[in-house]
Design a protein that fits this description.
Chain lengths: ~425, ~300, ~300
């Protein structure tokens, strides 16, 4: 009985497997056809602006868009860090979201290369985008296809942010040079405050890259930095080593918990006076309580080598669309709206107001903080975007690993850089 | 019965024969017994307190304000009390929508899987089916598979079917994945029902469906109750399938949505704690109400 | 004929067609959502696929890559370590708790419920609760400071050396209650006469435990072992919610590595190969469980 059952069982399994094998190559691995046809329903906007204030602002914009005409949009907000890791999945799925918040330049190029992004040349000729600067136009053009794939709507800056009232309390002032900066750190440390806050833990290890970027562009210049990220130099070069030697000077003043908490917690620590200052982008204000905004100020990352042309990090944000969207017309309408001065001003008004609009006619929030930021960006000799935006999303994790490792075990910098080069090589050679 | 147990597990080597008989002087016997009871209660209370500590912590954190946490740290004594965090998690954090989604998925899945499983168990236990044991083990085996092997194909499958990012896909995969285990458990239960009852029904002219519906199913009620309690909890608490076949935040059931909440309200521990309380409340309610069934269910199948 | 059938076993010998349907429908549901995808999973492990273009057949290429993959080695070692620590501790603590709480007395229901309560929480809720406790300014560090052990403070989840162990604790916290219930049932089934006999022979409590309790619990132990192994290999929720496998893979398990490879790095072929490895590790346990079930099924 058992033997008989066993033989029959085996036969059944065998048949099943063969049949399954035949079915296998069909079905699941089929890539559904990409079509640019028309389909009903609202245009889906996948947004990573999950900070409470930014999210509210986006909701306002989507509502305003819906009021304008027949096309409606649907906002889908995903937690920032989830969005970052899921973006490739979104773009490659059979029924992708139509539009996405993301960044232009090299980082969008890695998706454009795979034909995942919708071509937007036609809307760039329209009045909303015609007045945009040449630099922006170049930024939004795909290097491989020569077509525009992006619509920029805002940009912001990075700086050493601090709380005015706290600085007054401690009796310190903004430094201009690197040596003044280290003196400031000494003074803060003597007051029992962790001088430099950092939020490179939790889900936001990429915040540490800002330090790498800035030290690199201050020590070696923006050109070297961009070439390094593009793979034209190596991470184990002596120039990169110099960056970390400089970092060693500031490292003792970092918050010891810096790599254990995400930047939102670090922001809280900064506002509560537990840390003195933090190198961060203005986006952190969207997660801070509104009443703290007036007390915030920043200074430029200190100059290390006066001979190196001053560059600043001023990332541009905006939107792109999936090439596989079934609502191409609706998406383009949405993108055109997002490029108008009106929608950009609405965003600024509804959020923390710390971003600068890309539309030449749009007005920013007008606060002293924003005016200072605008001046910082406009006076820079060169602009860099940020580590991942100047390279690719795939390269960012290699930096995260290396930098957090360095902050934990700085003596192993030699092997850290070798490993970094090796992982980066894998990405660059793809 | 209790007395025998007391004798069996007592440290007191003096009282051997029975509970009332004492060898040592009465006073010290009482004294040591009380001491042992106190000792037991002390140990057990300490252990329980330790175990419940995280839960108490979450409840406290969920009633603090963000300013309190920002100023004093998340691990400090509370300095405030508010229910606003719940409102934030419920409305702004989308937990209300997520809870509804969870119910929309869990209730049909439990009903469907137990319904299908009881049907299959009925057929396999009451009738001499060919390959009976093979089928039983095959179905059970499907539930023992590590889900990782299924993740990619199922997500692509749901895309191809056009139900990706819809709750139907989640219901489908949960039913398919869970049914094997329930079949096995219900089979074990149903086959112990005497055959005479079924024979009597057949003689009365009842068809299989009526036998199933009117006779076997009511008799299987204890097992069904236990499995309902258990499966409700498992399906409600699932994470992996939800994040595999769903994408939009408004579609997410509450367990997956909690991760999204954490990503949104990163350092706002009060909101995250409130969200966790909301996510845990339904299963705790089911547990407290159906505690007996829960424990019975766990011992029935003794897996998971 | 029918009478003979009913005395031999309680099963009808004739199978009406509608009954076949009773079995086929659930079976089909499971085949569609489980067996077919599983076969596809095995097939995909032999390919290289980014989800976009057609998959490229690479034979055993993924597996040979795995052998040289340092992260895979870490994840595999961590998975085994997880199995031993999580499994061993939950079994030991669960048995201990069961031994403590086995006597039916006043208040016992409360204690048992208290230990069992974490089982009904989703692992994500559990993880977030413990994440709050593990914060640099959270409860654990504060308590350490308060009792004078300030030197032991760590950034538990961010420190490479502690992250793995920090993640096991919430999983244990949850699992102990569950194992306890299994052992409680097992302990209840032990005939008290055995203890009586042992006592008469002059056995100490430890000897009673070794020679009466443990042997009697053999079948429960088998169940607990299967549960623990299968649960360990599936452990995903807690690790994912707390650390995502970081900091730099120190808390990476095979299950989290598979998920991040497949759904974040979009290397679906390699991810499937990792899933196959998980399956192979679980296979022994699955088979032994099925064999035992086979014997019971008739």
């Amino acid at each position: 009985m058992t033997a008989f059952n066993a033989t029959r069982r085996r036969f059944l399994i065998g048949t099943g497997a063969v049949g399954a094998g035949a079915l296998l190559s069909s079905c699941v691995t089929q890539s559904p056809s990409a079509s640019g046809g028309k389909s009903g329903g609202p245009v889906t906007l996948q947004s990573n602006l999950s900070s409470p204030q930014a999210k509210t602002a986006m909701e306002q914009i989507v509502a305003a868009f819906g009021k304008r005409g027949d096309t409606k949009a649907q906002l889908n907000t995903v937690a920032s860090e989830t969005f970052r890791t899921q973006l490739p999945t979104y773009l490659t799925s059979a029924n992708p979201p139509d539009a996405y918040t993301w960044y232009p330049g090299s980082v969008a190029e890695s998706y454009a290369k795979k034909d995942l992004l919708l071509e937007l040349d036609d809307i760039w000729t329209k009045p909303e985008l015609a007045g945009y600067s040449d630099a922006l136009k170049k930024l939004c053009t795909s290097a491989s296809s020569g077509k525009k794939v992006f619509v920029p709507t805002s940009y912001y800056w990075w700086g050493m942010f601090y709380r005015k009232s706290n600085f007054a309390k401690w009796g310190v002032q903004e430094p201009k040079t690197w040596d003044e900066f280290l003196d400031l750190c000494d003074k803060l440390k003597s007051k029992g405050v962790a001088p430099i806050g950092l939020g490179a833990g939790g889900d936001t290890p990429w915040v540490a890259s800002a330090w790498f970027d800035y030290l690199n562009i201050r020590v070696n210049g923006a050109t070297y930095h961009r070439e390094l990220l593009a793979g034209k130099h190596r991470f184990d070069d002596p120039e990169v080593r110099k960056v970390f030697d400089k970092w060693d000077e500031a490292r003792p003043y970092f918050d010891p918990n810096g790599t254990a908490i995400p930047f939102q917690d670090a922001t809280t620590a900064l506002l509560q006076g537990r840390t003195g200052m933090m190198l961060i982008g203005t986006f952190f204000a969207d997660a801070a309580p509104k009443d703290a905004l007036g007390d915030l100020d920043f200074f430029q990352f200190p100059i290390i080598d006066p001979k190196v042309p001053v560059a600043e990090e001023a990332p541009t944000d905006g939107y792109f669309a999936s090439a596989r969207t079934k609502r191409a017309d609706g998406v383009k309408e949405l993108l055109r709206y997002l490029a108008t001065a009106e929608s950009q001003e609405l965003y600024i008004k509804s959020s923390s107001g710390t971003v600068l609009p890309t539309h030449p006619d749009a007005k920013d929030a007008g606060t002293p903080l924003v005016a200072k930021g605008r001046k910082l960006v406009e006076s820079a000799a060169e602009i860099t975007q940020f580590f991942n935006r100047d390279s690719s999303d795939a390269l960012q994790p290699t930096a995260d690993t290396a930098l957090v490792h360095y902050l934990a075990k700085p003596k192993e910098i030699g092997s850290i850089l070798t490993t970094w080069q090796r992982s980066a090589q894998k990405i660059w050679s793809q | 019965m209790t007395a025998t147990h007391a004798t069996a597990h007592s440290e007191d080597t003096e009282s051997k024969a029975g509970p009332a008989e004492v060898v040592a002087p009465r006073r010290s016997w009482l004294h040591s017994r009380k001491l042992r009871t106190t000792g037991f209660h002390l140990t057990a209370s300490l252990l329980s307190a330790l175990w419940l500590l995280p839960i108490v912590l979450v409840l406290i954190t969920s009633t603090r304000t963000f300013d309190d946490i920002a100023a004093h740290g998340v691990g400090s004594w509370p300095h405030s009390f508010t229910f606003d965090s719940f409102r934030q998690a419920w409305v702004d954090g989308g937990q209300q929508r997520a809870l509804i989604n969870s119910m929309l998925v869990t209730i049909p899945t439990v009903a469907l899987s137990l319904g299908l499983a009881s049907m299959a168990a009925f057929a396999l236990s009451r009738y001499d089916m060919p390959f009976r044991r093979v089928l039983l083990l095959l179905m059970l085996g499907g539930n023992l598979l590590p889900p990782q092997i299924l993740l990619i194909p199922v997500s692509k499958l749901s895309e191809v079917l056009g139900i990706y990012d819809q709750l139907y896909a989640l219901i489908g995969v949960q039913v398919g994945f869970g049914v094997g285990f329930y079949v096995f458990v219900l089979h074990g239960f149903m086959r112990s029902i005497p055959g005479e009852i079924q024979q009597a029904a057949v003689i009365d002219g009842a068809g299989p469906w009526q036998i199933y519906w009117r006779i076997i199913l009511p008799l299987a009620r204890p097992a069904l109750a236990a499995l309902t309690a258990l499966s409700f909890t498992w399906i409600f608490n699932d994470l992996l399938w939800a994040i595999t076949v769903l994408r939009t935040d408004t579609q997410m059931p509450i367990t997956a949505s909690l991760i999204g909440l954490q990503g949104q309200y990163v350092s706002m521990w009060n909101v995250i704690a409130a969200g966790s309380v909301i996510a845990a409340a339904p299963t705790v309610a089911v547990f407290l109400r159906f505690q007996r069934h829960f424990v019975a269910g766990l011992n029935l199948g003794a897996v998971k | 004929m029918a009478l003979i059938g009913s005395t031999r076993r309680s099963r009808a010998t004739r199978v009406p067609p509608v009954v076949l349907a009773f079995v086929l429908i659930p079976l089909l549901a499971e085949a569609f959502w489980v067996f077919w995808p599983a076969l596809q999973g095995f097939y995909l492990s032999l390919t290289s696929w980014d989800g976009l273009a057609a998959p490229k057949f690479v034979g055993l290429g993924n597996y040979s890559e795995m052998v040289h993959d340092a992260v895979f080695r870490t994840a595999a070692i961590n998975t085994v370590l997880w199995l031993l620590l999580f499994g061993g501790l939950s079994a030991a603590l669960g048995l201990g708790a069961a031994m403590l709480l086995q006597k039916e007395r006043r208040g016992i229901g409360f204690y048992r419920a208290a230990l069992f309560l974490p089982v009904v929480f989703s692992l994500v809720a559990t993880a977030l609760v413990w994440q709050a406790m593990y914060q640099p300014d959270g409860l654990i560090n504060n308590v350490l400071e308060a009792v004078g052990l300030g030197g032991w403070k760590h950034a538990w989840l961010a420190d490479q050396d502690t992250a793995f162990y920090a993640v096991i604790v919430p999983a244990l916290w949850r699992q102990v209650g569950y194992v306890m219930v299994l052992y409680l049932a097992g302990l209840k089934g032990i005939d008290p006469a055995l203890y009586e006999a042992a006592k008469v022979d002059g056995a100490s409590r430890w000897q009673q435990f070794r020679f009466v309790t443990l042997p009697q619990l053999r079948s429960v132990n088998a169940v607990v072992l299967s549960v623990i192994v299968i649960d360990s290999l599936r452990s995903f929720d807690v690790v994912w919610a707390l650390t995502r496998g970081g900091p730099y893979h120190s808390s990476e398990l095979l299950s989290t590595y598979m998920y991040s490879t497949a759904f974040q790095s979009l290397r679906l072929g390699y991810g499937s190969a990792l899933a196959v490895v998980i399956f192979v590790l679980a296979f022994g346990v699955i088979v032994s469980y099925l064999v035992r079930a086979f014997r019971e099924a008739d």
